[in-house]
Amino acid sequence: MPPQIKRLPTRVVSIGPVKIGGSNPIAVQSMTNTFTTDVRATVRQIKACADAGCAIIRVAVPDQKALAAFAAIKKLSPLPVVADIHFDYRLAVGAIEAGADKIRINPGNLQGAAKLKEIIAAAKKRHVPIRIGVNSGSAKKDLVRLASEYCEFFEAQKFYNLVLSLKSSSVVDSLDAYTRMARRRDYPLHIGITEAGTEYYGALKSAVGLGALLTRGLGDTVRVSLTANPVKEVLAARHILKSLGLLACPEVISCPTCGRTQIDIIGLANTVEQRLQKLNKNLTVAVMGCVVNGPGEAAQADYGIAGGRGQGIIFAKGRRLKTVPERKLVEELFKLIERSSRFS
């Protein structure tokens, strides 16, 4: 078996019913990009994220109108909801009272120590965790030094229900900050590369940064920050976790295509990947373009298909099971997977 990533031990924090830290699974997060005051659209987006495999959702609360909507959203959300607060401490207190499962703040922009203590008191009363989020774009000090100072303030108030994030748009700076912070505190880490970019480039940049952090055992929750639909963030984060064996879900392996390919291998691979998304099971499925890269090179796959001219074979663990027309390859593959899943 391949070596397993050894995760750094951290405290356990409960975000609604979802526990992070310790030996709990790494939770995928995202953030809505609808106007929070549009309750229907926001809840619809949260449900789409949940269907894609999101575990925790964050919602912006920029003003009192958004705060009123947040209470309604929280009641309708299928996921734990985190309130994202900036500048006005009253919004943080109000979100806690409205049932937020966690709040995210940057303590440096919340009107001073006295107001911050009011937030802490409200969070203590309702057992709501607080994520201290510091970003390189808004920090004048070294991120680790700044986050440590904030931790000391919270700890002086006897508040330890914390999650930390130290994000930068630089992969190298993020790696440095999270690695150094993990040596100082054992609070769970929410990891990400902030302002990563567009759907394609941002996903690649996040994969590099998050992959490096995760292989060091760092990270209890993850977000891939994209200039795109939040569902795309969720899917990218799940793929990153899956590639490292940190998520129980199917994996598609497929050949890169070449001049030997005589079937629509790209279309087949995408269709198989989409249909496997809702299957919460460790499973490897191969989609191969010809007999050269068929059952032999994909012998480790649980199930697979390999194509020829207008037809292909279905195989399992390298063993050929049947030959079917190209148009039936996906359906026959999934009949086999579903039948096997019922008896496993």
What does this molecule look like?
The protein is an alpha/beta fold and 344 residues long. The protein has two domains: 13-243, TIM Barrel; 250-342, 2-Layer Sandwich (Sulfite Reductase Hemoprotein, domain 1). Helices cover 39% and strands 21% of the residues. The chain is built from ten helices and 17 strands. It has helices spanning 39-52, 64-76, 89-97, 113-126, 143-156, 171-184, 199-215, 230-243, 265-276, 329-342; strands at residues 13-15, 18-20, 27-31, 56-60, 81-84, 102-105, 130-135, 162-167, 190-191, 197-198, 221-222, 226-227, 250-254, 283-288, 303-307, 311-316, 319-325. The strands form four sheets. The chain has an eight-stranded parallel β-sheet with strand order 8-7-6-5-4-3-11-9. A hairpin with a 2-residue loop joins strand 16 and strand 17. The longest helix has 17 residues, at 199-215. The two termini are 21 Å apart. It comes from Candidatus Termititenax persephonae. It catalyses: (2E)-4-hydroxy-3-methylbut-2-enyl diphosphate + oxidized [flavodoxin] + H2O + 2 H(+) = 2-C-methyl-D-erythritol 2,4-cyclic diphosphate + reduced [flavodoxin]. It holds the Pfam family GcpE_C. Its EC number is 1.17.7.3. Residues 251-338 form the IspG C-terminal domain.
Could you give the topology of this structure?
Elements (H helix, E strand, L loop, with lengths): L12 E3 L2 E3 L6 E5 L7 H14 L3 E5 L3 H13 L4 E4 L4 H9 L4 E4 L7 H14 L3 E6 L7 H14 L5 E6 L3 H14 L5 E2 L5 E2 H17 L5 E2 L3 E2 L2 H14 L6 E5 L10 H12 L6 E6 L14 E5 L3 E6 L2 E7 L3 H14 L2
Parallel strand pairs: 3-4, 3-11, 4-5, 5-6, 6-7, 7-8, 9-11, 10-12, 13-14, 14-15
Antiparallel strand pairs: 1-2, 15-16, 16-17
